[in-house]
Specification:
mainly alpha, Serine Threonine Protein Phosphatase 5, Tetratricopeptide repeat, 2 domains
């Protein structure tokens, strides 16, 4: 940053209010301008603290956590998220609690760490608030974790993997056709993973589960036709010439 831009940033930090600085921090973070983002977030946090605005502090801490996550500083991200979550609980803001819980779940998921307690808390809140998008994402995380266990040799993990992926389809359908199609493409990738891992029978069972779920939950003829075709492809794979 050249001297004139540095002075402009310093002037803004000195004069802007907490909300404006938080928004500026978001804009800098989106552009990968990390020092500028940190400067804005930290000043915004100071102003919220001086004003006794707990909710504002929590929002900025969550944004700082998201920036640290993007930078790969997972320990600092964890600390920021934890502080933000405590504030959201203290002020009784369930929407913000869910938002931060989802970020904590994604952080643990990215680290490959156990997150069952966090996932359960987020699930309970998302159900209470009727948040289909968060429920869809939680189902995906649960499904991925279960499938990883299954592919590592835990056969009992296949059933919860299938159930949560199917549930993700149900939530996606409530959000609209585009979400359902995107979810189906993700499921197709996992079917391919199973086939590549010589788990064709498990992949067939997955298709059967999806077909039954789709029928029971009215996911429509397109969903049924798609997984009927996938099942046939698994049963009768293309023959290679010799």
């Amino acid at each position: 940053m050249d001297s004139s831009n540095e002075q402009s940033l310093a002037d803004m930090i000195a004069s802007a209010d907490a909300a404006t600085l938080n928004q500026a921090g978001n804009a800098f973070s989106d552009r990968g301008l990390w020092p500028e983002a940190i400067a804005c977030y930290e000043r915004s946090l100071e102003l919220h603290q001086a004003a006794g605005d707990q909710r504002g502090q929590g929002i900025v801490l969550n944004n700082l956590g998201a920036m640290c996550y993007g930078l790969g500083d997972w320990e600092q991200a964890q600390q920021c998220y934890a502080e933000s979550l405590e504030i959201a609980k203290a002020v009784g803001d369930q929407s913000e609690q869910l938002f931060v819980l989802m970020n904590l779940c994604f952080l643990r998921y990215a680290q490959g760490q156990p997150a069952e307690e966090l996932l359960a808390s987020a699930q309970t809140l998302a159900e209470a608030l009727g948040r289909e998008q968060e429920l869809m994402r939680l189902a995906w995380m649960r499904g991925d974790l279960a499938l990883q266990r299954a592919l590592a040799g835990d056969d009992a993990a296949y059933a919860p993997a299938f159930a949560t992926y199917a549930a993700a389809s149900g939530h996606a359908a409530h959000l609209g056709r585009e979400h359902l199609q995107q979810t189906m493409s993700f499921i197709d990738e996992h079917l391919a993973r199973l086939a590549e891992a010589n788990q064709r029978l498990a992949a067939l069972a997955f298709c059967d589960y999806l077909l039954a779920y789709g029928k029971n939950n009215n996911l429509g003829p397109e969903f049924a036709a798609h997984y009927t075709k996938k099942r046939e492809e698994l049963l009768y794979p293309p023959l290679l010439g010799i």
